[in-house]
Amino acid sequence: MAGIYLHIPFCKQACYYCNFHFSTSLGQRDALVASLLEEMQLQRHYLERQPVHTVYFGGGTPSLLPDADLHRLMTALRRLFNITPDAEITLEANPDDLHPEKLAALHAAGVNRLSIGVQSFHETDLRWMNRAHNSAQALACIQDAQAAGFRNLSIDLIYGGPTLSDAGWEENVRQAIALGVPHLSCYALTVEPGTALDSFIRKHKVPPVDPDKAARHFELLMQWMEAAGYEHYEISNFALPGWYSCHNSSYWQGAHYLGLGPSAHSFNGRSRQWNVSNNSVYINGIREGKVPFEAEILTPAMALNEYIMTSLRTAAGCNLQLVAERFGDEPRRQLETGSREFILSGKMERKEHSLVLTREGRLFADGIAAELFV
Ligand code: SF4
């Protein structure tokens, strides 16, 4: 089981909080699509003909891809890789791109799952974040996607921002539930170094982000989603039964994946590599027949720590039997000893062979994982 990720590094405008790799100039779009097609050729043996169960167009804003380009990319993927007939094909989209004709074209290209960057249904929040869409588009795109036959829908929402009250946050979540969206990815607003938001806060143009508010929004979110029947299957992800993201789940289960495009990451069980985060350098490298990337071989300790970090973020938790099988008895013993204080303080529990974070523990997931690193 393997996955393929394609990074489409273009956006209409820069959201103030964003630190992903993208450009707001579309001048290199054609060259980049040509490079992606070429990179597929160069990397066609990376997954060693493993069946590919998931394809994910991320970005940036993949819904900015012209329909013909998406068709060409999909056709080449099917020709060069062992994509299974029932593969989950996800495309990240922004609400302002999802008009009915676009939705029909995405459907025709084989996209069967949309991940929509709604972020908020409130105009004030959207303006504060410098999103390209408005609240009417946030709502309409979901209804249009459903009318176009997309049942497998996910939306992203951001909480903890200064313009979002507790009541506003509840309205956002209730709106998503009322629309019957089966999958939600919810993220705390974070201030990443070098972003416009970081600069505004430093210059006192906007207030700093309040971590207590974000923690409160996260706790409320867990309560509302549980009451609505959604499963909290990963720290930031909630799904109705049967609607988990296969692509993200396979990352967390250690499946191999190939990343295509600038800044995309790949993993083949032995090493991980990441393409250069620069469109021109990427395009020029591919023109010369070389994928510009850096790589590192995973030591057993790195692989174990990565497993601890990712597994603790999931509802299934960190499987100690699996740790013993893959890494030996000593790491398992260390994890059992290290986890005692978190179990005593109510942040973690033992469920059969696994260590699982409690609702309280999920607030500190990354810190707890770091404490348990080998
Ligand atoms: S649309 Fe997405 S990738 Fe583009 S700037 Fe906004 S958050 Fe970043």
From TrEMBL:
It is found in: Cytoplasm. Transmembrane segments: none annotated. GO terms for cellular component: cytoplasm. Gene3D superfamilies: tm_1862 like domain (3.80.30.20). It comes from the Bacteria. PROSITE patterns: RADICAL_SAM. GO terms for molecular function: 4 iron, 4 sulfur cluster binding; coproporphyrinogen oxidase activity; metal ion binding. GO terms for biological process: porphyrin-containing compound biosynthetic process. Probably acts as a heme chaperone, transferring heme to an unknown acceptor. Binds one molecule of heme per monomer, possibly covalently. Binds 1 [4Fe-4S] cluster. The cluster is coordinated with 3 cysteines and an exchangeable S-adenosyl-L-methionine. Belongs to the anaerobic coproporphyrinogen-III oxidase family. HemW subfamily. This is Heme chaperone HemW. It comes from Chitinophaga japonensis (Flexibacter japonensis).
